[in-house]
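Two records follow; treat each independently.
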Amino acid sequence: MTTALITGSTAGIGAAFARRLAADGHDLVLVARDTERLRDQATELHDRHGIEAKVLTADLSTDAGIEAVAARLGERRSPVDLLINNAGFGNKGRFLDVSMADELTMLKVHCEAVLRLTSAAAETMRERKRGGVVNVASVAAFVPRGTYGASKAWVVQFTQGVAKDLAGSGVRMMALCPGFVRTEFHQRAGMGTDSIPGWMWLDADKVVAAALADLARGKSLSIPDPRYKTLMGAAKLVPRGMLGGITSRTGRKYGPQ
């Protein structure tokens, strides 16, 4: 039986990955900051699907948290076959309205943690000649959107670059770029969503199903909905200055995930 490790597993896209992978028979390592919530999730998934669900409490905005997860990914006796780097958050407000400490924390979680955990996972996977890593980014990676969009753009470029470097190794790498997904993401960041049209919202379980299908096909980039694929194609034709004005009016605080 294979094992998947999911960061940010207790809510949103991470929880959807946990549900789907448990239903498919994968054992899980669930990673988040809230131990009680992790234990409740692990118990529910074990009782419902009969899989083993381990809990790893870690704050990926800290070196200690990243190191703890990297150590688990480096274990050879109980290897992780699939890593889902999902942990992330949004900051409310435009640039200079957000504290530098919060901006740096975002880079720690979205970039440094993804870099270090991908490296730890890929090393052991390459030794076994099999495995996969899904780094959750966002369609915000393709539009001017402050630190959030910039960090997600880094995730996309990093993941696709590593995918090329590891081609033929048996290790699959994919950046997942959803649009607006109905999760706790915006509420936890104190972000309003009234200005977002209903048709732009995606279902987390459908996002995960599309992502896993794209990973199985060997794709290095997944935009899991025809509407957003069309929007991102159109965005390439719009001058970046105009696109920046549109996204700033929508609000930096509305970073999709």
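The next record belongs to a different protein.
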Amino acid sequence: MKQIVFISGKGGTGKSTVVASLVKYVKNITIADCDVDTPNLHILLPHKRTAKSDFTGAKLAFINDEKCILCGQCRDVCRFGAISDEFVINPMKCEGCGACQLVCPVEAITMDNVKIGEVYEADSDYGMFTYALLDIGAEGSGKLVTQVKKTSQKKSGDQIYSLIDGSPGIGCVVIASITGADAVVIVTEATLSGKSDLERVQKVVRHFGIKSYVCINKFDLNSSVTHDIEEFCHLNEITVIGKIPFEPGIVKALQQLETPMDDVKLLHIKNEIVRMWETLEREMIQ
């Protein structure tokens, strides 16, 4: 099974809309939403949840009051100010580094696993669907992304493609999203910030030696920036597989929980998305 991950250097480029549209067209797929901080693919894809599991991907310090001798060494060594004057751990400040446990002379501190999010498995009309949601204020989003991908792969069966809605940005969640991918599609837009973020995230993809492609959303907003993006792609041997025009009707469709593939008024957008996939599929076969 070939993993194709869709990412963007920033949020709001239309990445999830492109993925949701392709999901409704491509056959023999599994689907995963790795934007665990703010998942939204499940909103656009009708599905029936079949399983939910807690994910414990972080550790927090706990002080045993019966053993504690109030020496203060743990509080002194904590760089994050997570231990109060009363020797109570603030879970919102504790980074789970274990320094306090290391210096405690009476072994009154333990590092315990804590829940940081939930992983969901679901059946949809388009394929097995996996997504997750990070708990508010929790750390370890990269680990949760990795768990989403592992869960999706276990249920892949004989499917040909895994379409993965990756995380925006260039941080650890993006690295976790693209790890093991056969191809990455960077969805950008014809703005100066879009071009800048494309260049930043492409450096991450290139570092890991993964083949990348580019889809320019709203390409007709600024022809000069679009030209610069295409020139950047040419110089870096990146294939531009799609150019989607600005279309207010897409927003109206999304408000009705529909993708461009569902709205007959958006046939020109649907045709471009289909052409984009056909180009990508040819590239994947080579």
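Discussion point: The mean pLDDT is 93. How would you locate this feature using only the token line?
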